[in-house]
Amino acid sequence: MCLGIPAKVVQIDKSNLGKVDYLGTKVKTNFELLDNLKVGDWVIVHAGFAISKLDEEEARETFSILREMAKNEAQANKNKEREKQSNRQKG
Amino acid sequence: MKELRDKRVIRGLLSEIEKRTRELPSSPRIMEVCGTHTMTVHRYGLKNMLEKVGVEMVSGPGCPVCITPNEIHEAAIELVTENENFILTTFGDMTRVPTRKSSLQKAVPAAGSMVKIVYSPRESLEIAGSNPEKQVVFFGVGFEATIPGIALTLREAFEKSLANFSILSALWIIPPPLRAIVEAKEIALDGFLYPGHVSAIIGEKPYQFIAEEYGIPGAITGFEPSDILLGIFSILNQIKDGNATVSNEYSRVVRASGNPKALAVMEEMLETKDSYWRGLGLIPQSGLKIKKEYSAHDAEIRFNLSIKGGSGDLPGCRCGEVLQGLISPPQCPLFVEKCNPDSPYGPCMVSFEGACFVYYKYNPTIKNEL
């Protein structure tokens, strides 16, 4: 089972053991598969092991593409609405 | 992160997807390889929404509990029922898989023995440490997202010379069965949604052959509804441009070359072998086993197990066909009446990522019928 929601590192010791906060629950986690982690980083955890650090810049980029999609859709709907209205007026 | 489930974003993506499918002669069929993707596709109603805009989604082999043949489940049951003072640890789903020899949950352990559910493989080490008089076997199942953690656990046991700990492994590699599904030519696929967390470990390259040798587009995808749609949108763009690639639509988590530390520990502790998959049969180099140097912690060797074949499915169960996308769960005559989450007949109804379970859980019409 893959947990797609990232968890926040809240505790990490020298032997790469510690805890993450996953949706408000503190979970024991092994950080040995990742380098240079610090408290506050966001990670993906799988079966008790952090397997990837979230790249916040990449995340922002994806979210801005998604917002663009929503904007285009809203614009397209507005245009359709206007077209309908002008057709009605013409009719 | 609200964009990932935002209705306006989802509507926007669906309308872009529809624009692409209108230009195609027929509805593209896309396989979501990962069981958790199947979950997202159904949980958020994307399956029907996508059908309306001309995309057919089929489920794939990405449920490790499901594709593990019954012979291995039965070996685990034998271990704990025939050996005294024995602790078998495993993930929760694994205990409920029905076999010809009952299930781990229902089987009666030998005197002083028990089955213990763990969340992480490492918990088994702690259990072994605090029960030195007992043999502890971790029945470890998983794909590349889980395997590095199991490999680290194995290494720790070896370094600490934990004499009463071993692993019964059911470790699977995702790309080989995809080749097997394409080569079998029983189902025509126009694209693959590649699993997000397996890809976080292995990166983009291991899927390249699907684009290069078979010309089938694909996208590495995350687990939120917008992630899935973004992956599909990318596949449709690849179809439109006539340029099959492996696009990474989950770049916030997946690096092009994967996780080098995870790959290194896998390579250090494990080696590839030909493996049987439920439904798919024997696939070359599709599994991992513990290297000889660490065989003291390999349960198969320590307990002299001979795990054979892959023909032990319960009669009538069509999980094997579901795992290849050949049938959808409602096409199985056992579905709902004879096989449901309360009383599963086959593994695809047991696991939270099993397609039969997901179809059952998120199909409102089924509940009305009962």
Relevant terms:
heterodimer, A: 91 residues, alpha+beta, SH3 type barrels, 2 domains, 1 helix, 31% strand, B: 370 residues, alpha/beta, Rossmann fold, five-stranded parallel β-sheet, 16 helices, 39% helix, globular
Would you mind describing this structure in some detail?
The complex is a heterodimer of chains A (91) and B (370). Chain A has a five-stranded antiparallel beta sheet with strand order 3-2-1-4-5, with no helix packed on it. Chain A has one helix at residues 56-90; strands at residues 7-12, 17-22, 25-30, 42-46, 49-53. Chain A is 38% helix and 31% strand. By secondary structure, chain A is of the alpha+beta class. Chain A is rod-shaped, with a radius of gyration of 22 Å. Chain A folds into two domains: 7-54, SH3 type barrels; 55-91. By secondary structure, chain B is α/β, with parallel strands linked by helices. Chain B has a domain at 2-61 and 175-248: HypD, alpha/beta domain 1 (Rossmann fold), CATH 3.40.50.11750. Helix content of chain B is 39%, strand content 18%. Chain B is built from 16 helices and eleven strands. Chain B has helices at residues 7-22, 35-43, 46-52, 64-67, 70-82, 122-130, 147-159, 175-184, 196-202, 208-214, 225-241, 260-269, 299-302, 319-322, 355-361, 364-369, and strands at residues 29-34, 56-62, 86-90, 114-117, 135-142, 165-172, 191-194, 218-220, 246-248, 270-277, 281-290. In chain B, strands 4-3-5-6-11-10 form a six-stranded mixed beta sheet, with helices on both faces. In chain B, strands 2-1-7-8-9 form a five-stranded parallel beta sheet. In chain B, helix 1 (7-22) runs parallel beside helix 11 and helix 7 packs across helix 12 (260-269). The longest helix of chain B is centred in the middle third of the chain and has 17 residues, at 225-241. The two termini of chain B are 38 Å apart. At the A-B interface, strand 5 and helix 1 of A face helix 1, helix 2, helix 7, helix 9 and helix 11 of B.
